[in-house]
């Protein structure tokens, strides 16, 4: 009985090893595409969201309601709809600078999608700093920009970083949606591999999930480490 079980287990392992060897090159190719999409989306979205978040945190009369409308529009609609608008609708406006290929549309969509969450995080962190910090800086002769750079933002980092980790992981998983505009990323490669091996759907999705985890887990660890360093820095200054 034990010998039969070991023979069965060995046959299964050989089968799974054969499937992994066959599909991994394609999955890794898709993983590289996912990595590129996510990194561009993180950088572009963080820059745009950070800028808008700082502006929104200043309670500027004209900018604040406009940025608020931008956030409600993006956070109130699915990412897939935003991607369709950017890739299919905007090119029909006739403006040449809106005639994007699928990859550019994916980069723009992911960046804008990410920026909507980063903006809220940054503006919320800035607003969480007591108003007395601003007033004290102004009393010392600091202007608004210097106060923001030297006093407000350093204290806000510890509030911003924990939330950014979740946003970045959400972005990484959202890259699977851009396959609808022709981007062959990780999940699209997994679907193509399933056509070749229809009897191993669960196993192929498991391999794809393992690659997603290999990307998401280090991102969370890096953000967590940066958060710890930020907390230690504040404790030392205190």
Automatic annotation (TrEMBL):
Q: Where in the cell is it found?
A: Cell inner membrane; Cell membrane
Per the record, the coiled-coil ranges are none
Residue intervals passing through the bilayer: 37-55, 67-90, 110-129, 150-183, 203-224
* Main localization (coarse): membrane
One of its Pfam families is BPD_transp_1
The UniProt record lists the ABC transmembrane type-1 domain at 31-223
UniProt keywords (A-Z) are: Amino-acid transport, Cell membrane, Membrane, Transmembrane, Transmembrane helix, Transport
- GO CC, alphabetical: ATP-binding cassette (ABC) transporter complex
**Classification via InterPro entries:** AA_ABC_transptr_permease_3TM (IPR010065), ArtM/GltK/GlnP/TcyL/YhdX-like (IPR043429), MetI-like (IPR000515), MetI-like_sf (IPR035906)
Q: Which GO terms describe its molecular function?
A: transmembrane transporter activity
What kind of membrane protein is this, topologically? Answer: Multi-pass membrane protein
What GO terms in the biological process aspect are recorded for it?
Answer: amino acid transport
Please state which protein family the record places this protein in.
Belongs to the binding-protein-dependent transport system permease family. HisMQ subfamily.
Extract the NCBIfam families matched here.
HEQRo_perm_3TM
Protein name, please? Amino acid ABC transporter permease
């Amino acid at each position: 009985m034990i010998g039969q079980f070991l023979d069965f287990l060995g046959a299964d392992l050989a089968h799974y090893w054969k499937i992994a060897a066959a599909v991994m090159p394609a999955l890794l190719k898709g993983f590289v595409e996912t990595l590129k999409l996510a990194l561009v989306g993180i950088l572009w979205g963080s820059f745009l969201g950070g800028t808008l978040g700082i502006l929104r945190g200043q309670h500027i009369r004209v900018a604040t309601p406009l940025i608020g409308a931008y956030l409600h529009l993006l956070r109130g609609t699915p990412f897939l709809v935003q991607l369709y608008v950017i890739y299919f609708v905007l090119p029909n406006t006739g403006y040449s600078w809106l005639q994007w290929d699928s990859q550019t549309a994916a980069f723009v969509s992911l960046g804008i999608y990410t920026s909507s969450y980063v903006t809220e995080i940054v503006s919320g962190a800035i607003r969480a700093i007591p108003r007395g910090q601003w007033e004290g800086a102004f009393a010392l002769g600091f202007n608004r920009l210097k106060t923001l750079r030297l006093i407000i933002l350093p204290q806000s980092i510890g509030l911003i970083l924990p939330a950014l980790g979740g946003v970045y992981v959400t972005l990484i998983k959202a890259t699977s949606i851009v396959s609808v505009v022709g981007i062959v990323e990780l999940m699209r490669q997994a679907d193509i591999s399933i056509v070749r091996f229809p009897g191993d759907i669960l196993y192929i999705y498991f391999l794809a999930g393992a690659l997603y985890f290999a990307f998401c887990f280090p991102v969370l660890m890096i953000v967590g480490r940066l958060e710890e360093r930020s907390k230690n820095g504040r404790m030392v200054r205190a």
